[in-house]
Design goal:
32% of the residues lie in helices and 22% in strands. By secondary structure, the chain is an alpha/beta fold. It folds into two domains: 191 residues, 3-Layer(aba) Sandwich (Peroxisomal Thiolase, Chain A, domain 1), CATH 3.40.47.10; 130 residues, Thiolase/Chalcone synthase (Peroxisomal Thiolase, Chain A, domain 1), CATH 3.40.47.10. The protein has a five-stranded mixed beta sheet with strand order 1-7-6-4-5, sandwiched between helices. Strands 8-12-11-9-10 form a five-stranded mixed beta sheet. A two-stranded antiparallel ribbon has the order 2-3. A hairpin with a 4-residue loop joins strand 11 and strand 12. Helix 2 packs across helix 3 and helix 6 packs across helix 7.
């Protein structure tokens, strides 16, 4: 399966090229938002609402999603292209009521498009886009779609969500360095079947894998990366590759010790050979924690690197971890340019 085009709206850009260029340059889109934590410390966030001014809640999510889908579509016809959208988990604080049922019909109305019958949402959080990609692959293989739009949208900056993160001591503030910076974003990938002979410049999703991690972020037991390692191994097996074919990774870590420990333990469980370099990329340093938008955003960023000859290696590992315990990984390959 190949990534044909991308769309993205983040705290550092209103389009995929703008967002990716800013991330590549290390530009952070952090601002103090009009809220304080329980200790009275200001909360820093990464806001994308510059692209859809004066919108909050459902209108904000819809506006961000519509912009990215429209960008990824470009001039392509919409017939035969289902929209598969990753959303926040049902129990995320501040989640708009009826989000799952309302967002795709509202998107179709906003963009004046006929919604494909196989369009659906994946309310799985950070792993949702990879779940959607696995479904897209099955639709393409069955001939039910000529391409698929795999998108993700989320906002962790609403007051209810901030209050819950603060209560769980997960916000990065002056009084708590072990926390995340809440963000909001949307991203979209148009994907199509790779074909027997994909173009030489194609960016390919070679394998996808899933697993479950029983140790949650609130658990007193240490996180050892067992579930994430299983997802990585499943993705490698699906691709018919090994870690020898992968030379760097991109992950949805957000600054919390839990996520970084999990990523490092999972790498230790899966990387069984000596490598001089194994680069580690993460977008959270620039655009904060973006929940269900993270999977599509990371894959979109990988395509940006490959397309511009800036990828450090031809094989990349992308992995995501949802608060629900779901774990997902994808193996991505692309061209190396002189």
């Amino acid at each position: 399966m190949r990534i044909v085009s991308t769309g993205m709206v983040t705290a550092v850009g209103a389009t995929a090229p703008a967002s990716c260029a800013a991330i590549a340059a290390g530009i952070a889109g952090f601002v103090e938002i009009p809220a304080t934590d329980g200790g009275g410390f200001p909360i820093t966030g990464a806001l994308a609402r510059h692209a859809v001014p004066r919108k909050l809640g459902f209108p904000l999510l819809l506006g961000l999603l519509a912009l990215t889908v429209e960008e990824a579509l470009g001039d392509a016809r919409t017939d035969g292209i289902p929209v598969l959208a990753a959303l926040s988990p049902p129990d995320q604080a501040g989640r708009p009521l009826g989000l799952d049922e309302a967002i795709l019909p509202a998107l179709a109305e906003r963009l004046r498009m006929q919604l494909h019958g196989d369009s659906r949402v994946f309310a799985a959080g950070s792993t949702g886009a990879l779940r959607a990609l696995a479904h897209a692959r099955s639709l393409l293989a069955a001939g039910r779609a000529r391409a698929c739009l795999v998108a993700g949208v989320d906002s962790l900056t609403g007051m209810d969500c901030l209050d819950q993160l603060d209560a769980d001591e997960r916000l990065k503030t002056t009084g708590n360095p072990d926390g995340l910076i809440p963000g909001e974003a949307a991203a979209c990938l148009m994907v199509a079947a790779a074909g027997a002979r994909p173009p030489p410049d194609a960016v390919l999703i070679r394998g996808i894998g899933f697993a479950h991690e029983p140790v949650g972020i609130k658990d007193e037991r240490p996180i050892l990366g067992v579930g994430l390692a299983a997802a990585i191994n499943a993705a490698l097996a699906d691709a018919g590759l090994t870690m020898a074919d992968v030379d760097y990774r991109i992950a949805d870590v957000t600054g919390e010790r839990y996520g970084m420990n999990e990523a490092n333990y999972a790498l230790g469980r899966t990387l069984k050979m000596r490598k001089l370099h194994f680069d580690f990329l993460h977008l959270g340093d620039c655009i904060g924690a973006i929940g269900a938008a993270s999977g599509a955003a990371m894959l979109g960023y990988l395509k940006y690197l490959f397309d511009r000859g800036r990828s450090p290696h031809p094989g990349a590992l992308c992995h995501c971890s949802s608060d629900t315990g779901d774990r997902a990984a994808a193996i991505v390959t692309g061209p190396m340019k002189e």
